[in-house]
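Key result, reporting period 2: structure in, sequence out.
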């Protein structure tokens, strides 16, 4: 790493020629009019600007490059340096000081417009005047108008008029020939200006032309992971560079692919097509993120890499690890992506069908999006073996242990590789994976599950659908994907809030998942604030069904209808807790931690 100092004019001409360009992962240039004026004031005063950072090209970190906004170098020109830090400043300075075109910027309200930048010579040489007040932002037509009228106050549409107004166009600053030509017109229009011009030239023009910009140059040997880390630390806008953006730029810069296909590879376009196809068939996959796809792919690639290594070196203890952390993703060659991406996409489609079998149909009902990462990788490695009855049952048990054991919260990248290896080995008659052995569910957790923020809460919702519950308003068939979407089925209170308020009961159990069940909007509207004993009669009356038939519908929700007809919340809560725990135990394939408490200990929180 070297620290240099470059004259602003030389630096901007390198930008103009395309010798300095941007890595494609950089966000678009976007500075507003006020910030550009402030920057120009800084440079014309020769105040410190801050360091820029570049990366020499031709090394390991190969990224697709693009010119800075407003420049138009030759299309086949390869840059010598990539700008990592300083894009906003250099782009603004190039467009304002060197470009023949107006600056494309915006105001404080993000209204876009084009501007030329001028400096008032008289104000610039007056030490009592703030330099920013001397910098003028002029519309594209070069006509300054009064604030509340259309009357033109200053006309700058010709060199003669600029000189008469004493307003110097800053985009001539670095061109000595143009500065000289402008000066002759300026001083000839008023002889007294011979005294002002030397001051302006020394205090503004020479300071700007000789302005030194400190530059850190990273050598071409810098690893791309280090480039990523450096970019995030120096980026003054606090922009976090995602792995996907970095790989997008890396893959687009793959010269071998470009030569073979006549175009750059676009990771963003490839992922967009994949996601569109997946979500069109399985809405539950709509929330998949590009990093999920890359992590699943990395697991597959590193799994195969590790097993090839161990097959060639039996008994070795130095095999490469299976991984999908940031470093692993950054080390994914384009060829590995192209080889494995179709299989991962197919595996995610399989995962969508698997989730539907578990009665998880909607994006908002998915307990853990992240669990799809190892699930897809497991499917790729197992192939058709994942569809065998025994394998399917084990995968489902692993899935529900992860959901109900709530094991995929927080930092989980280290769990993914273990899941992949251990589940595959388990299906081949190995030991149970850690996710299965570590998972546990306690009865008390049911009481605290109250919102969609909990994966287990969503899991209980799906388990009730999976065991075939019917809507109380609709009698044709169990709630399926069509009914779920068409009838707006959500978790609704069995004992409604109005019932508790009517009896002045304060009970934290009211909002628990135990007191909720999947029902349609119409069914919930019938419930309203009524007592269960009352609304069950209404369901029977409105449908013309027998009481026993309505009770059978209620029973499909793991609810004892007798407790509802008696409006006995405590009895309902005890029975429903046990029934839900049975569902949980069946899904996890293991006993839940049940409490042994007296009936009195399970009573309402109301001290009365």
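The corresponding designed sequence is given below.
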């Amino acid at each position: 790493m070297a620290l240099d100092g470059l004259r602003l004019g030389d630096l901007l001409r390198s930008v103009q020629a395309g010798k300095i360009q941007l890595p494609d992962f950089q966000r678009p240039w976007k500075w507003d009019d006020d910030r550009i004026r402030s920057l120009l004031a800084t440079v014309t005063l020769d105040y410190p600007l801050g360091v820029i950072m570049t990366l020499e090209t031709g090394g390991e970190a190969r990224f697709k490059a693009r010119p800075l906004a407003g420049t138009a170098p030759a299309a086949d020109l390869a840059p010598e340096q990539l700008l990592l830090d300083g894009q906003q400043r250099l782009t603004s300075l190039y467009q304002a000081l060197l470009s023949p075109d107006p600056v494309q910027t915006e105001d404080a309200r993000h209204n876009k417009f084009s501007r030329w930048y001028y400096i008032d010579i008289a104000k610039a040489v007056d030490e009592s005047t703030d330099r920013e007040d001397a910098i003028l932002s002029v519309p594209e037509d070069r006509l300054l108008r009064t604030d509340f009228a259309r009357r033109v106050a200053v006309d700058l549409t010709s060199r003669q008029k600029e000189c008469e107004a004493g307003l110097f166009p800053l985009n001539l600053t670095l061109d000595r020939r143009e500065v000289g030509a402008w000066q002759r017109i300026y001083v000839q229009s008023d002889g007294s200006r011979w005294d002002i011009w030397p001051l302006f030239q020394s205090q503004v023009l020479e300071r700007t032309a000789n302005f030194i910009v400190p530059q850190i140059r990273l050598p071409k040997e810098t690893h791309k992971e280090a480039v990523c880390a450096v970019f995030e630390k120096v980026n003054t806008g606090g922009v976090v560079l995602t792995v996907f953006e970095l790989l997008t730029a890396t893959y687009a810069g793959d010269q071998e692919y470009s030569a073979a296909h006549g175009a750059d590879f676009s990771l963003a376009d490839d992922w967009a097509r994949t996601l569109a196809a997946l979500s069109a068939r399985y809405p539950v996959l709509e929330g998949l993120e590009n990093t999920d796809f890359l992590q699943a792919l990395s697991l597959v690639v590193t799994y195969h890499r590790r097993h090839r290594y161990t097959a060639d070196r039996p008994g070795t203890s130095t095999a490469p690890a299976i991984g999908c952390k940031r470093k692993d993703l950054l080390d994914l060659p384009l060829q590995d992506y192209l080889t494995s991406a179709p299989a991962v996409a197919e595996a995610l489609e399989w995962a969508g069908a698997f989730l539907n079998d578990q009665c998880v149909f909607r994006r908002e009902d998915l307990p853990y999006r992240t669990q799809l990462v190892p699930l897809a990788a497991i499917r790729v490695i197992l192939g058709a073996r994942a569809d065998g009855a025994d394998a399917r049952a084990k995968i489902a048990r692993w899935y529900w242990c992860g959901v109900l054991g709530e094991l995929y919260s927080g930092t989980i990248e280290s769990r993914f590789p273990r899941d992949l290896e251990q589940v595959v080995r388990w299906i081949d008659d190995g030991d149970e994976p850690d996710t299965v052995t570590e998972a546990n569910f306690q009865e008390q957790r049911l009481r605290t599950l109250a919102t969609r923020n909990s994966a287990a809460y969503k899991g209980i919702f799906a388990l009730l659908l999976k065991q075939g519950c019917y809507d109380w308003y609709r009698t044709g068939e169990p709630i399926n994907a069509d009914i779920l979407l068409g009838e707006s089925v959500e978790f609704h209170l069995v004992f409604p809030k109005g019932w508790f308020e009517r009896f002045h009961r304060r009970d934290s159990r009211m909002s628990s998942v135990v007191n909720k069940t999947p029902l349609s909007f119409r069914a919930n509207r019938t419930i309203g604030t009524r007592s269960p004993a009352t609304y069950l009669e209404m369901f029977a009356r409105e449908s013309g069904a027998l009481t026993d038939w309505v009770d059978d519908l209620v029973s499909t929700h793991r609810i004892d209808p007798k407790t509802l007809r008696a409006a006995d919340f405590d009895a309902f809560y005890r029975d429903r807790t046990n029934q839900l725990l049975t569902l949980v135990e069946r899904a996890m394939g293991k006993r839940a931690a049940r409490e042994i408490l007296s009936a009195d200990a399970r009573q309402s929180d109301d001290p009365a």
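The chain has three domains: 2-215, 267-439, 445-602. The first strand starts at residue 2 and ends at 7. This case is discussed further under Risks and Mitigation.
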